[in-house]
Amino acid sequence: MIDRLKPHAKILLMFVVLAAACAAWAQVGGPGVVLIKDATILTVSHGDIAKGSILIRGGKIAEVGPSVAAPAGATVIDAAGQFVTPGIIDPHSHIAVAGGINEGSLAVTSMVAIEDVLDSTDINIYRELAGGVTTTLTMHGSANPIGGTNAVIKLRWGKDAKGLLFQGAKPTLKFALGENVKRSGPNPTRYPGTRMGTEDVIRAAFIEARNYMAQWDEYRKRAAAGDKTAIPPARDLKLEPLVDVLRGERTTNVHGYRADEMLMMIRMADEFGFKIDAFEHGLEGYKIAKEIVAHGAIVSTFADSWGFKVEAWDAIPYNAAIITRKGGIACINSDSAERARRLNQEAARTMKYGGLNEQEALALITLNPAKELRVDRWVGTIDPGKDADLVIWNRHPLSVYAVAQKTFVDGEIYFDIQKDQEMRKRMEEERKTLEALDKKNAPQGRGRGSAPGASADKTPQHQD
Amino acid sequence: MTHTRMRFPSYRAGHRIWTLACLAFLIAISAQLVKTEEPLVFAITNARIIPVAGAPIERGTIVIRRGVIEAIGANVTAPGDARLIDASGLTAYPGLIDAFSDIGLEESTAGRGAAPAAATPAPVRGAQQPQPQPSTIPPDERQGLTPYRRAFEEINPAHRKIESARAVGITTTSIVPRRGFFPGQGSLLNLSGPEVGAMVVKPATSFYINTAGRGGGGGGGGGNYPGSLMGILAFVKQTLLDADRYATAWNIYRANPGAERPEYSRALEALQPVLKREVPVIMPANSPAEIQRALDLADAFKLNLMLMGCAEGGKMAPALKSRNIPVLLAVKYPDRPSGTDPDFREELDSLRRRVEAPANAAALARAGVRFALVSDDMANPRDFINNIGRAIEAGLDKEVALRALTLTPAEILGVADRLGAIEKNKTANLILATGDIFDQKTRVKFAFIDGRKFDIPEQQLAPSGTAGRGGPGR
Q: Please, what are the domains in chain B?
């Protein structure tokens, strides 16, 4: 009977059968079904579960609770005495980028895209997994007032660049204010050289973007009216992201330290009618918490770094706590591949400085950055339906003694502290093999190795 | 030694005859001066012939007339007017084609686009001046955008590297300019000479897009745009968009009286064959990530892509095979890290790449990827051949290697009807070697290029440099 079906119907039937099979699989155990059992679960969204289990199915969290039964065939991980948190989200990172994180040549470089140059082989991806990080906002640097577009990635170590991208995350654009921008580099001629110049550059760029929109509007009007002489404006990769911002289709991450420059940027956003989604660092955010909260910007800050340059002089370790208490949303970021491996400790400091409770502290590195990145629908807490991005810790993650044991992304284990030890052994063995081979192909080159069948010994006789 | 014997008329003959003879002699001499030692017809006899296009001939004759192969075979008789060359003990191969090199190229520094033509003042990119027209896209003369340049314009036919290339059997090269981001067009040249005009087989074989190049040093602190890899990619994308829009604008202008006349741009004009897929683009890419980036860029703009380098191409072989991307495979192997630090420990990744490098060609061949072996910018052509030898030791089939130096590059460059094999009616580019071309002890004795005979002097057979010279520039 199947033979009589038309080819496309046959394909359809195959799909139906396949889908049914998948559904059946999902109901029972099988690959991709994992139960993490008997752990202390820090959900971040709805408190802690003292002895609970998490069922992972198809890369998602299927069930969470004190009594979740393992379906037949599920892989069971006994996590008794251990702690589970949502995967950590680092909302300010520069890892996994090839060929430079700054296009500092111009003051406005919104045409460059981190997504174009993601380096999925950067070992920092793996190292951060070992610190429980599962998602990062990988950003353009802060060399210029308007930098490039950033990329939200999941740390799917081993996948290629496209495989890292967090599908569905809203596009973002980097802005920067202050010292990094105005002092930038050995090129003293690059404008701007002051904070007022920075403001001017950003304003000029948005005016340019508005003009660009107007040109396109005019062209579309003429074309729609049947004007055959209408020539489309040139597409401008620099202005397109700014147009996105003006239309609310792209989030803005504004690097700024000082209160005055952040206020300037809020006024600018109001002037042009866009929103600042996050102040990066925002070290003096506590001084203007009211204004920041009123604007709706998230503050992505350091836990306790201050005084490392003049504009960081007024930074205090209470920043995240004050923003939180004033009704705002704060995140703790790393801005460093090294610090990213211990963001749990960074978050814990806000309990000492500012008195945040455990759940609030954990939210600074999970739920809050998920909100900043506009991915809180999928990640940031342990709730059914969310991506199974989870970390199993040997101790409470807000303790300095906590070490990540297993890190899951989309329900897959990307870091396992036991497998890590085995991998190290395998790598040592591989190194020995390679070094032996390398010695064999010593620098004398292939001297000895003329290929077989060569006729080099024949004495040539020729006349001319 | 070569002599053309002439019989002088006796002085005892009559005065008139003497004058006539003198005249005849002078004419003969002057003819000889014009074409000194350059006979037009050769018959190479008793050679072992590897025609590449057909089965090897153990003992055969090749007749060359006016730069073209007139006949080849075991039973070919040398014509009476031919200069005879007894090639007993020698093996005839088609002249080797190096499909991506800088041999003979003396690129002007203007290639970085620093000094555009006086006619158009260079706009200061990056100046933030709101203007009615988008000021970010000057119509022409961006730094590093010189697609109108053609490599043959910057060839020095007397470059010493040409002679050393001939010495290892290379008779044809595709020279590609590489300074800047759209540095210009590659030219296919026969290494014959004496004038550049006589060497040009095809003036424009390809456009180079330098996606792996270093930027203008922008980085974190100024310098020229683009200064980072992402900057280079943005520059390339913007340029291609502009070239596309340029065609649209001119088409509208030409078809519709009343339309505003677009600005002329020699750069965007020159790029039109790229968008029409008439001429392939070459992008350098070594790592899987670089290869993927090049594939993505080519997809986005529907480019006719060739990849150059591909040091780790084996890892991307399925993608290259399924898209049928021609690969210009540079046989450059990374250098062993040097230094005196006793505690130095090479990264495993680097060690892996280095040790596995020679096996890359074999992996591509096994996967059925079409590739030509190229020297890129290796300093010494001898290293080029030696490194191919290492690839053969690492599993590359010798016949495949030979084809990747002859017929495959000819096919990739669209000249397989003229070059790449010893065949009747093909250009007389062939070499006579003392044995297997990939054997390190083999010497190329003679090269025929466009039917011109070149004797390879012994001293040209310089010893190899470090075999791994020139890493793939990661």
A: 96-419 (3.20.20.140)
- How far is Cα B422 from Cα B70, in angstroms, rounded to an integer? 10
Name the region of A30 (left: φ>0; alpha: ψ -120 to 50; beta: rest): left
B187-233 per-position pLDDT tens digit = 999 999 889 999 999 999 999 999 876 655 445 555 688 989 999 99
Interface of B with A in 27-66 (CB under 8 A): none
Q: Give the span between the Cα atoms of B189 and B199, in whole angstroms.
A: 5
A457 within domain boundaries: no
**pLDDT-derived band at B273, boundaries 50, 70, 90:** very high
Residues A141, A42 within the same domain: no
Give the separation between CA B124 and CA B121, rounded to whole angstroms.
9
Q: How many CB atoms lie within 10 A of CB B461?
A: 15
A145, A217: one domain: yes
**From the centroid of its chain, how far is CA B435?**
25
Whole-number Å distance between alpha carbons of B246 and B236: 15
Identify whether A1 is part of a domain.
no
β-sheet bridge partners, residue B216: B224
Whether A355 and A332 map to the same domain: the answer is: yes
Distance of CA A176 to the CA centre of its chain: 18
Alpha helices for A247-284 (secondary structure H): 259-272
Backbone dihedral angles phi then psi of residue B28, each to the nearest 5 degrees: -60, -45
Residues of A in contact with B215 (CB under 8 A): 100, 103, 105
Residues of chain B positioned with their CB less than 8 A from the CB of A205: 128
The answer on A92 and A123 residing in a single domain is: yes
List the one residue out of A62, A70, A73, A71 whose CA is nearest residue A37: A70
Would you say residue A270 lies in a domain?
Answer: yes
Q: Which residue has the tokens 């014009």?
A: B34
Tell whether omega for the bond before B194 is within 30 degrees of 0, i.e. cis. yes
Closest CA to A199 of A191, A211, A187, A190: A191
ipTM metric: 0.89
Taking the Cβ of residue B112 and every Cβ of chain A, the question of whether any pair is shorter than 8 Å is answered with: no
Burial group, residue B203, by CB count within 10 angstroms (0-12, 13-18, 19+): middle
Domain containing A226: what range?
88-379
Specify which residues A89 forms β-bridges with. Answer: A135
Contacts 24+ apart (CB under 8 A), B213-218: B213/B178, B213/B180, B213/B181, B213/B284, B215/A100, B215/A103, B215/A105, B216/A105, B216/B143, B216/B144, B217/A105, B218/A100, B218/A102, B218/A103, B218/A104, B218/A105, B218/A106
pLDDT at B200: 97
Is A448 in a helix, a strand, or coil? coil
Confidence of residue A439 (pLDDT cuts 50, 70, 90): confident
Report if pTM > 0.90: no
Same domain, A247 and A160: yes
pLDDT of A388-415, one tens digit each? 999 999 999 999 999 999 999 999 999 9
| Sequence-ordered list of residues with C-beta below 8 angstroms from that of B31, at least 6 positions apart, any chain | none
Does the CB of B300 have a partner CB in chain A at under 8 Å? Answer: no
Tally of domains within chain A: 2
Which of B228, B346, B360 best tests the A interface by mutation, with the highest count of A CBs <10 A? B228
Indicate the residue among A379, A406, A431 that finishes a domain. A379
**Domain co-membership, A125 together with A229:** yes
Per the CB < 8 Å rule, is B222 touching A443? no
Q: Looking at residue B127, what is its pLDDT?
A: 41
Is residue A428 in some structural domain? Answer: no
Query: From the centroid of its chain, how far is CA A357?
Result: 26
Phi, psi of B172 (to 5 degrees): -140, 135
Whether residues A306 and A360 share a domain: the answer is: yes
Measured between alpha carbons, how far is B54 from A287 in angstroms, rounded to an integer? 83
Nearest CA in chain B to A142: B220
Q: What does the angle CA A400 – CA A405 – CA A410 come to, to the nearest 5 degrees? A: 120
CA distance to partner chain A, nearest, from residue B64 (Å): 15
Instruction: Show residues of chain B in contact with A228, CB under 8 Å.
Output: 252, 255-256, 259
